From TrEMBL:
Pfam families: GerE (PF00196), Response_reg (PF00072). Residues 6-122 form the Response regulatory domain. One of its GO terms (molecular function) is DNA binding. One of its GO terms (biological process) is regulation of DNA-templated transcription. The lineage of its organism: Bacteria, Bacillati, Actinomycetota, Actinomycetes, Pseudonocardiales. The modification 4-aspartylphosphate is found at D56. Keywords: DNA-binding, Phosphoprotein, Transcription, Transcription regulation. Residues 149-214 form the HTH luxR-type domain. Gene3D superfamilies: 3.40.50.2300. This is DNA-binding NarL/FixJ family response regulator. InterPro entries: CheY-like_superfamily (IPR011006), NreC/VraR/RcsB-like_REC (IPR058245), Sig_transdc_resp-reg_receiver (IPR001789), Tscrpt_reg_LuxR_C (IPR000792), WalR-like (IPR039420).
Length: 224
């Protein structure tokens, strides 16, 4: 993708929005809109069609979780949503990731990390290490049975299932390559095919899917 990322900032705290806007614009990132609640965020996304949305969870009128669901509900040109939180293991973060968010940032993120994260997510990468996603899933998955997404893994080859199992354990591409005695390029191809076949946005969603389908259990065991 070329050009500067276009970003919407949704947070009910003026100081947070102002600080993030100053950091991003100083680095050439275009903040196309700000929102003080989830309803405004949904409208801002509809109006401006950004690449990335920085979304607070706890906002008045409409929270960030429901706003994320509405933004990502079948839109052909949907943006990447990054959840803003003050806690690194927040129940709402897991729910937002399940709803389709591409990762999360703590509100005390450094300016350098904020800028790098926006560019990384806009390029299509997940903004959350699979190992951290696994911690979230292990902590909250059993409490969210009602929201479980049942996916059919029958489309995956035995090798792709093996890659998905290891991905859910938090292995990076380099670690996957070493474990499976493959090149990193081949691993990337397998991951891309898994995402395409299961209609997933990124690695974060792949980790969640592995747990939600029972391919891997919260205890770390692989069902027989």
């Amino acid at each position: 993708m070329t050009g500067s990322p276009r970003v919407v900032i949704a947070d009910d705290q003026l100081l947070v929005r102002t600080g993030f806007r100053m950091i991003l614009t100083a680095d050439g990132i275009d903040v196309v809109a700000e929102a003080t609640n989830g309803a405004e965020a949904v409208e801002a996304v509809r109006r401006t069609k950004p690449d990335v949305v920085l979304m607070d969870v706890r906002m008045p009128e409409l929270d960030g979780l429901e706003a994320t669901r509405r933004i990502l509900r079948g839109a052909a040109d949907e943006p990447r949503v990054v959840i803003l939180t003050t806690f690194d293991l927040d129940h709402y973060v897991y729910a937002a990731l399940s709803a389709g968010a591409s990762g999360f940032l703590l509100k005390d993120v450094t300016p350098e990390h904020l800028v790098a994260s926006i560019r990384m997510v806009r390029a299509g990468d997940a903004l959350l290490a699979p190992a951290i996603t696994r911690r979230l899933v292990e902590r909250f998955a059993q409490r969210d049975i009602a929201s479980t997404v049942h996916r059919d893994l029958a489309a995956l080859t035995p090798r792709e299932l093996e890659v998905l199992r290891l991905l859910a354990q938090g292995l990076s591409n380099a670690e996957l390559a070493a474990r499976l005695h493959l090149s990193e390029a081949t691993v990337k191809t397998h991951v891309a095919r898994i995402l395409a076949k299961l209609d997933l946005r990124d690695r974060v969603q792949a980790v969640i899917a592995a747990y939600e389908t029972g391919l891997v259990t919260p205890s770390g065991d692989v069902p027989a």
